[in-house]
Amino acid sequence: MKKEIAFIFDLDGVIVDTAKYHFLAWRNLANELSFEFTEKHNELLKGVSRVRSLEILLSIGNVTLTEAQKQTYLVKKNTEYLGYVNQMTAEEILPGINQLLDFLDQNNIKYALGSASKNAPLILEKVGLYNRFSAIVDGNDVSKAKPDPEVFLIGAKKLNMKPENCIVVEDAIAGVEAANTANMVSIGIGDAELLKEATYILNDTSGFTTDFLQKILN
Ligand code: B16
Ligand code: MG
């Protein structure tokens, strides 16, 4: 390996698929407010903060709430979401991720988490990965949401790495944009058309083969 590098991982859509649980909780909230919320709508919330997600959801339903009502619904949504998160186990780690972390450990490559989720530490604990990360940056640590690069820049700082030597793994367009703005290498996980701004694109996390890793690291 030519230079010292580090990885920064998004959580939802990269390490685990919590989007399905966010969807169930947001859909129940929409139904309570008497409108439909589809899986397609849910795509708009990926990588977006909880507060911003509620704003988007309310605009889909054309519903206006007071600040106090919004707070009540945010708590309600998160309580339901945590009910699903508390059932999570290591089985839910996405394919290829354990092998990727093993590869990074074997090659002394540090890695951090850079997630918009305030529940990120709990989720990592539930799936048994909490202690593997050298640093965790989550929704509690940032003031500016993706596509602002803040979350990844804090991650690089915590790892004591220069941004240009960090590789971000992201499934959301806003996350890829944040990584690019931070002057980091980005690996987009998902639809090649949607994530076309990423430096590299993989259909899913099983694409982290040794061949791919050797290619990007050399
Ligand atoms: P919470 P990521 C994001 O996680 C999710 O993609 C997004 O759907 C969610 O609204 C956001 O976390 C906030 O989550 O309500 O748990 O604080 O993709 O940045 O890991
Ligand atoms: Mg994500």
3D structure, described in words:
It is a single chain. The model has no long low-confidence stretch (mean pLDDT 96). The chain is 43% helix and 11% strand. It starts with 5 loop residues before the first strand and ends with a helix. α1 (19-32) packs across α4 (67-85). By secondary structure, the chain is an alpha/beta fold. The chain has a 6-stranded parallel sheet, sandwiched between helices. The longest helix has 19 residues, at 67-85. The protein is globular. β4 (166-170), α8 (173-181) and β5 form a beta-alpha-beta unit. The chain is built from 9 helices and 6 strands, in the order βαααααβαβαβαββα. The chain folds into 2 domains: 6-16 and 93-217, Rossmann fold; 19-85, DNA polymerase, domain 1 (Orthogonal Bundle). It binds 1,6-di-O-phosphono-beta-D-glucopyranose and magnesium ion. Magnesium ion is lined by residues 10, 12-14, 46-47, 171-172, 175.
Sequence-ordered SSE layout with sheet pairings:
Elements: E1 6-9, H1 19-32, H2 39-43, H3 50-61, H4 67-85, H5 97-106, E2 110-114, H6 120-126, E3 135-137, H7 150-159, E4 166-170, H8 173-181, E5 185-189, E6 200-202, H9 210-217
Parallel strand pairs: 1-2, 1-4, 2-3, 4-5, 5-6
Helix pairs in contact: 1-4
Bound molecules: 1,6-di-O-phosphono-beta-D-glucopyranose (B16) and magnesium ion.
